[in-house]
């Protein structure tokens, strides 16, 4: 006999099991969906006694559709976005981040570009996933990075470009260019090749990176503005500037030799800076001594000529007296240091006292080495 005819199975009627009563409901029971639908239909029938297709019912349905259509115009703009509102496909306004409203479709639509986000484009290198390292690794792209300099050298340049959409150029960004990232990358690579082609390799590798980056940024911005792209270049960063890998060892040798040359030149310049001032000082000293000697000689000559002129004036007044005085002064100057004794007393020689050379009677000391003995007539 089936259990359904026995009033609930072998343990009796009702939801029971072999150990007594069945599971008891815990907490409030969820509402029955069919019961809710039935209640909603009853309320609609009370509001629309003539049915759904009566005049009042159609009006309510139309009002609900219109309300939902009007509410569909609300939209939210995220923090990195700007809302571009199009009315029948024409750009009419731009809205800031937050909750905004536009006329529902198809009158107005909205586009939400990432206008406030700074994007980055890498040229000469690319990031690839590396499962072994659980991250990304950089891979060189030689067809983008190898460039020819103005002095016919090859240089490997990897750089990144930081760009964003101009706040007042969102419409140009959306409608004037089809592939913004590809356009920025192509223009940046072309601008870098042009600037590198006008430059020498040595300044690029040493101290002219800032000048090169500034020139590339200005050239990219000028080109994009001519396209009407609505893009602003924030910064150009040169990540790596090296010679090609095939010649980098030889290039480093050349750089080392050039560094040694500069060191030797600096040492020579230091020595020159030390020697030249000393030579100039000595030359100035000699010039000053010569100038002093000249002044002294000229002054002495002027003094002697003045003395001669004064003597001449006196000579013209009394020639005999002056002549005798000059003679006596001259003889005094000539014979003043002599050991000779001259007597001019006539031929008789009377009244002359004999001269006794006492200095010759004493023993003479031997003369010093290197000196000659000189004697005088007494």
From TrEMBL:
Main location class: membrane
First and last residue of the signal peptide: none
Top-level taxon: Bacteria
Record has Transmembrane helix as a keyword: yes
Membrane-traversing stretches: 52-71
Chain spans, region Disordered: 1-33
SMART domains: PHB (SM00244)
InterPro entries per record: Band7/mec-2_domain (IPR050710), Band_7 (IPR001107), Band_7/SPFH_dom_sf (IPR036013), HflK (IPR010201), Membrane_HflK_N (IPR020980)
Ranges in coiled-coil conformation: 247-274
Compartments (UniProt record): Membrane
Membrane topology: Single-pass membrane protein
Pfam family for this entry, one: HflK_N
Entry's Gene Ontology molecular function annotations: peptidase activity
Assembly notes: HflC and HflK may interact to form a multimeric complex.
NCBIfam families assigned: hflK (TIGR01933)
Function: HflC and HflK could encode or regulate a protease.
Protein name: Protein HflK
Organism of origin: Bradyrhizobium canariense
């Amino acid at each position: 006999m089936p259990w359904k005819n026995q009033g609930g199975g072998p343990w009796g009627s009702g939801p029971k099991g072999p150990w007594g009563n069945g599971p008891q409901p815990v907490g409030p029971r969820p509402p029955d969906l069919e019961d809710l639908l039935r209640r909603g239909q009853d309320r609609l029938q009370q509001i629309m006694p003539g049915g759904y297709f009566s005049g009042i019912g159609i009006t309510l349905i139309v009002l609900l559709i219109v309300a939902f259509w009007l509410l569909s115009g609300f939209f939210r703009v995220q923090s990195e976005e700007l809302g571009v509102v199009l009315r029948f496909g024409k750009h009419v306004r731009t809205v800031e981040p937050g909750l905004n409203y536009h006329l529902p479709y198809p009158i107005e639509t909205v586009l939400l570009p990432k206008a406030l986000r700074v994007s980055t484009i890498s040229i000469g290198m690319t990031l690839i996933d590396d499962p072994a390292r659980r991250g990304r690794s950089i891979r060189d792209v030689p067809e983008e990075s190898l460039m020819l300099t103005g002095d016919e050298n090859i240089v490997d340049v990897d750089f990144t470009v930081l760009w964003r959409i101009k706040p007042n150029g969102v419409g140009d960004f959306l409608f004037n260019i089809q592939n913004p990232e590809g356009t920025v990358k192509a223009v940046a690579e072309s601008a870098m090749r042009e600037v590198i082609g006008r430059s020498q390799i040595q300044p690029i590798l040493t101290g002219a990176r800032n000048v090169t980056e500034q020139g590339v940024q200005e050239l990219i911005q000028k080109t994009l503005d001519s396209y009407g792209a609505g893009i602003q270049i924030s910064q150009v960063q040169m990540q790596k500037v090296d010679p090609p890998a095939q010649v980098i060892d030889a290039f480093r040798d050349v750089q080392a030799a050039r560094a040694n040359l500069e060191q030797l030149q600096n040492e020579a310049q230091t020595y020159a800076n030390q020697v030249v001032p000393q030579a100039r000082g000595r030359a100035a000293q000699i010039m000053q001594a010569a100038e002093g000697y000249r002044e002294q000689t000229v002054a002495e000559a002027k003094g002697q000529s003045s003395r001669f002129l004064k003597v001449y004036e006196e000579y013209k007044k009394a020639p005999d007296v002056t002549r005798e005085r000059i003679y006596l002064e001259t003889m005094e100057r000539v014979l003043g240091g002599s050991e000779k004794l001259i007597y001019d007393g006539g031929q008789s020689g009377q009244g002359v006292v004999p001269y006794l050379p006492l200095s010759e009677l004493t023993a003479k000391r031997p003369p010093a080495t290197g000196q000659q003995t000189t004697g005088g007539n007494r």
